[in-house]
Design goal:
The protein has about 475 residues and is of the alpha/beta class. The chain has helices spanning about 5, 10-20, 25-35, 50-65, 70-75, 80-90, 105-120, 140-145, 155-165, 180-185, 190-200, 215-225, 255-265, 280-290, 305-315, 350-355, 380-390, 420, 435-440; strands at about 40-45, 100-105, 130, 150-155, 175-180, 205-210, 230, 245-250, 270-275, 295-300, 320-325, 340-345, 365-375. The protein binds adenosine monophosphate (AMP).
Length: about 475
């Protein structure tokens, strides 16, 4: 199936051609035709699956059908000269009446969605999209709302502020999208979402996207949609088959920092994303890397929105090679040139691991995700492996070996993922590990570490492998 076979508006087809997209992704192939029919949708789909276009294209298609002829649109007010100024003055006192609202959990995702609407709607004359985000100055946002955009993309908290001050009127709203609904609930937005949805017309079309549809999010999805088509393209733990995963054991913080520094000098890295658990660590790791001569920048929720935007723009332009971020960057960030993701700290939730590593291997490319793991965190690794149903091979870099032997559990039969083979009751019975694994750790030194090539090693995902430093 192609986009033109779906029957999308020619202006959208042209924009898709400009972007180099001809074939819909699986989620798009299912969502777009149903959304064009006007159906409510509840979709469970993997990060990086093309879900933004899946809801944005049918929404723009609908708005395109409602576009007035260009000449009428031009003479209709705010577009030119003095009439435009008068229109703006009038508009200042009138609330914005959007026709589409997209709610997202994070500012980054909101900006990403706004950029996507501009990308796909660039051949349309009258579609304006505005992002309403926490952290952005109110006067600037009021100015944006005064343009009466057709599409509002917002984080829930800030949207409520503007609704309360009468700056937004949802009486004309036709489409509501809840993007990454599970994440919004995790972030405690449930009451805000309920309030926003209650202010929109009952006759709206609702599309809800979520990594999971279990529990509260599933119940909310049912409540907010009518006779919704349920689309499940991929489970949240769907295999990122184009992303190779590895982990390295570290003894302590100093070892972790040395190893990270070493791994980041790999020439095969185009751009890298390093995840830390705290904002403070994002700053300090970034500072340390800069002192070490690596081009790094930090990104976290304590930074002003302007600074966050500038950092992301610099990343997109390739001016920053390493972005050190908290989980604010785990979702939504779409920079196809990110070749490597590093978990300096493991995420708290296994699901976040999937989102983090999904920042690489974008748009059909391959990627590498490397986790730096302290021995005491093996339990966390198992949770991730159980969730993803994939085992993460352990690697060793010569010259950066951990002195402590990892406390492996019962050996996994070859090819069997950790979530099936792990049995913590046998922790420490290292004599039962497979010969290959034992060889790596004999006498606390990774014997096989000298054999393989540098980080570019593509030796597949099974078992334990060692990695030479290439120094
Ligand atoms: P998303 O899941 O919306 O974050 O999209 C993931 C990436 O896939 C983005 O870089 C999109 O621009 C890209 N993308 C979306 N639709 C297509 C398509 N039909 N063909 C190729 N790439 C696409």
């Amino acid at each position: 199936m192609t986009f033109s076979e779906i029957g999308l508006n020619p202006a959208l087809l042209a924009a898709l051609t400009d972007s180099g997209y001809s074939v819909p992704t699986p989620v798009q192939a299912q969502v777009i035709p149903a959304a064009i029919e006007g159906r409510d949708l509840i979709a469970c789909s993997q990060t990086g699956s093309g879900k933004t276009a899946a809801f944005m294209l049918p929404a723009l298609h609908r708005l395109a059908l409602q576009e007035r002829p260009l000449a009428a649109a031009r003479s209709g007010g705010r577009e030119d000269g003095r009439t435009a100024a008068r229109g703006r003055d009038q508009q200042r006192w009138q609330p914005a009446r959007p026709r589409m609202l997209v709610l997202t959990p994070t500012r980054e995702l909101a900006l990403q969605v706004t950029a996507a609407s501009e990308k796909y709607g660039r051949r349309m004359h009258q579609v304006r999209a505005v992002a309403i985000l926490g952290g952005m100055p109110y006067p600037k946002q009021m100015e944006l709302l005064a343009r009466n955009p057709e599409i509002l993309v917002a984080t829930p908290g800030r949207l409520i502020d503007h609704m309360s001050s009468g700056k937004i009127d949802f009486s004309q709203l036709q489409m509501l999208v809840l993007d990454e609904a599970d994440r919004m609930l995790d972030m405690g937005f449930i009451e805000d979402i309920e309030r926003i949805v209650a202010a929109t017309p009952e006759a709206r079309q609702t599309m809800l996207f979520s990594a999971t549809l279990d529990g509260t999010v599933g119940a909310m999805a049912q409540r907010m949609t009518r006779n919704a088509l349920r689309i499940e393209v991929d489970a949240p733990s769907a295999k990122h088959e184009n992303i190779e995963q590895r982990m390295h054991f570290v003894d302590d913080l100093a070892h972790k920092n040395r190893l990270l520094d070493h791994l980041l000098r790999d020439a095969s890295i185009d751009q890298a994303l390093v995840f830390t658990a705290t904002k403070r660590d994002a700053d300090s790791v970034s500072d340390r890397l800069n002192v070490a001569g690596l081009n790094a920048a930090a990104l976290h929720g304590d930074m002003h929105q302007g600074a966050r935007n500038r950092t992301l723009a610099a990343m997109r332009r390739g001016q920053v090679r390493i972005l050190v971020a908290t989980d604010v960057a785990a979702r939504g960030l779409d920079v196809p040139t990110i070749t490597h993701v590093f978990n300096y700290d493991l995420p708290k939730a296994a699901e976040d691991y999937v989102h983090r590593i999904g920042r690489t291997g974008r748009a059909g490319r391959s990627g590498l995700a490397i986790s730096l793991v302290h021995h005491a965190e093996q339990f966390n690794v198992r949770r991730i492996e159980r969730f993803t149903r994939q085992s993460i091979p352990v690697e060793v870099v010569v010259g950066h070996e951990p002195t402590r032997r990892p406390q492996t559990t019962k050996p996994r039969p070859a090819g069997r993922p950790a979530w099936q083979g792990a049995d913590t009751r046998n922790a420490g019975q290292t004599d039962k590990r497979p010969a290959k694994a034992t060889a790596h750790w004999r006498d606390g030194l990774p014997r096989a570490a000298r054999q393989d090539s540098a980080h570019g090693s593509q030796g597949g995902n099974g078992g334990r492998r060692a990695l030479a430093s290439g120094r």
